[in-house]
Write a structure and sequence with these properties.
By secondary structure, this protein is an alpha/beta fold. The chain contains eleven helices and eleven strands. Helices cover 36% and strands 18% of the residues. It is globular and about 55 Å long. It starts with a strand and ends in a 6-residue tail after the last helix. It comes from Paenibacillus pinisoli.
Length: 273
């Protein structure tokens, strides 16, 4: 049984690979840059580009299950090549696929649902804990973070928990044609997150509130597209209920509690000091 992991060098993909390796699976990792993948030695690293489906043909040979991201790794836009990818997977003999949600039902999800594959949607409607790395530089240099709203709430999820769920679904039966909503175990405000980081690194941290205009200017300077900026600003002004609702899915699927933000901070302490 060979399992193909797409997006294998991303925040979630690395955890999918690690969890599968720990479970004893034969793992093939798809990446645009095999030379810099830095994955476990037992993993077969291969080249492939999801926007160029024909490049996946060698990678799919002998694969029976696949973890598939549904967005373009370059700009996070929904992949438009879903029909081609799913058709190639079926032709290669793939039987099941986990689909990591991009935030909307796109061409990949539609193609999978219309195929003969056993599909499972993994839907984290919240931010990943790894997003906190965006604060690392200003915390190290100034002891501050800057943002729109210190009290905006999120049931943020540890990316390793998404990896654990994906690996479990790929290795076990009973998950076909289901959609799993994935969150962390607690609802936190930005103030709560700062308190956890402060306790871990032993420094008091300050939150500096930005105006909407200042936040937009900051994101534009970082090269973020206008539609993404609009989404982020709107989300902070009026976050959807799904973003601050805790779901028990991680523990139900994996048999272990979802990881807390305090655990994530402890694992990533060196980034903030």
């Amino acid at each position: 049984m060979t399992i193909l992991v797409t997006g294998a060098t991303g925040n979630v993909g690395r955890h999918v690979v690690d969890q599968l390796v720990r479970s004893g699976a034969r793992v093939r990792a798809l990446t645009r840059n095999p030379a810099t993948a830095n994955l476990p030695q037992s993993v077969e690293v291969v080249y492939g580009e999801l926007t160029d489906p024909q490049s996946l043909v060698p990678a799919l040979e002998g694969v029976t299950a696949m973890h598939l991201i549904t967005f373009n790794g370059a700009d996070s836009a929904p992949l438009q090549t879903g029909a081609e990818i799913i058709a190639l997977a079926e032709k290669a003999g793939v039987r099941k696929v986990t689909l990591l949600w991009s935030g909307e039902r796109g061409p990949v999800e539609a193609a999978a649902e219309e195929s003969g594959l056993e599909w499972t949607h993994l839907q984290p409607p919240v931010e990943f804990m790894s997003n906190a790395r965006e604060w690392a530089e200003s915390i190290r240099s100034e002891g501050v973070i800057r943002g729109l709203n210190r009290e905006v709430l999120s049931a943020m999820i540890h990316e390793a928990d998404i990896g654990s769920v994906a690996a479990t679904v790929l290795m076990e039966d009973g998950h076909a044609f289901k959609s799993y909503t994935l969150t962390g175990p607690e609802v936190l405000s930005v103030s709560d997150k700062l308190r956890h980081i402060s306790a871990e690194i032993g420094r008091e941290l300050e939150f500096i509130e930005l105006t909407e205009a200042e936040e937009r200017a900051k994101m534009r300077q970082a090269g973020i597209q206008e539609d993404v900026i609009d989404y982020v600003v709107g989300w902070h002004a009026n976050p959807p209920k799904e973003s601050y609702q805790v779901w028990p899915t991680v523990e139900q699927i994996t048999g272990r509690p979802a990881r807390t933000f305090a655990q994530w901070v402890a694992e990533n302490r060196e980034k903030f000091i």
